[in-house]
Write a sequence for this structure.
């Protein structure tokens, strides 16, 4: 059974754009495929380029793709002995790369996208939603984050990394979990807001680290219940002051917002610096506030 959740707060899209997707849980993982469907339904041209296997915790590792071993791709989504890179036989937009998330992103941008889009490059990179959160000390080790930062740092493509606290590994051809659909709808709302803000979608060398709280059948079970909070990746105890927002010059910590206060259905959105995967500075934060203002809320 597939869940259909309509976002009352979703903004209308001016036009579809070219989007490249990746993750670190694998190209056949349900979260990634559900988000692919949601983005495609919204009118975007979407290219999925993900690792052939689960590569969680790979960070920014990058190696030349190799022939798929005898076990095949995850969930038997490609047979053993398949080439180092390949596509779904019925949909060339769905691609695997038998290597790390960063390699999957690189290959998608440099090799697959030009073929699919007649030489045109992706306009936005979206990774995840990851199975499990990526906050604070987890951020440097996340392959989902690593793939997003790769797009920003080495290809100058704006990127957003999405992660969710709820979820178990689920194959693309199984029933869609409630968490997969809610996280995809929330991710679409954030992406739509950024797209509708106009180019450049994000400041140079900047990415967004987005963490969704836990969902269940009884709590945070409708996309309209969530509020979006601008946060920091690191605590900021010894950092320069943040942008002046919500009556303070210190943004809340994403761990506190998405996990500690998770029962309040808060989504943490942290501006990141692609150089070191830490929090972007106040000037860059201010630019992102201007873009996300239509959906941002303040903590009580």
């Amino acid at each position: 059974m597939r869940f259909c959740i309509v976002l009352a707060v979703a903004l209308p899209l001016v036009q579809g754009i070219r989007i490249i997707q990746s993750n670190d849980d694998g190209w056949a993982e349900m979260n990634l495929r559900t988000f692919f469907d949601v983005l495609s339904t919204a009118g975007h041209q979407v290219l999925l380029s993900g690792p052939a296997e689960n590569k969680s915790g790979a960070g920014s590792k990058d190696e030349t793709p190799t022939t798929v071993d005898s076990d095949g791709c995850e969930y038997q989504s490609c047979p053993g002995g398949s080439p180092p890179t390949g596509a779904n036989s019925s949909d060339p937009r769905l691609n695997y790369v038998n290597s790390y998330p960063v390699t999957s992103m690189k290959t998608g941008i440099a090799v697959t996208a030009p073929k699919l889009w007649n030489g045109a490059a992706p306009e936005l990179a979206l990774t995840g939603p990851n199975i499990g959160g990526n906050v604070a000390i987890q951020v440097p080790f996340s392959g989902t984050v690593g793939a997003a930062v790769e797009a920003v740092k080495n290809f100058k493509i704006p990127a957003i990394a999405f992660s969710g606290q709820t979820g178990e590994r689920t194959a693309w051809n199984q029933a869609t979990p409630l968490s997969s659909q809610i996280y995809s709808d929330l991710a679409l709302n954030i992406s739509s807001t950024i797209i509708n803000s106009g180019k450049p979608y994000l400041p140079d060398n900047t990415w967004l680290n987005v963490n969704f709280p836990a969902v269940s059948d009884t709590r945070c079970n409708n996309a309209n219940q969530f509020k979006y909070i601008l946060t920091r990746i690191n605590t900021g105890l010894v950092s320069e002051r943040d942008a002046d927002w919500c009556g303070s010059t210190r943004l809340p910590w994403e761990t506190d917002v998405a996990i500690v206060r998770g029962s309040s259905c808060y989504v943490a959105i942290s501006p990141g610096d692609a150089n070191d995967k830490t929090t972007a500075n106040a000037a860059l934060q201010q630019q992102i506030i201007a873009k996300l203002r239509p959906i941002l809320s303040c903590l009580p």
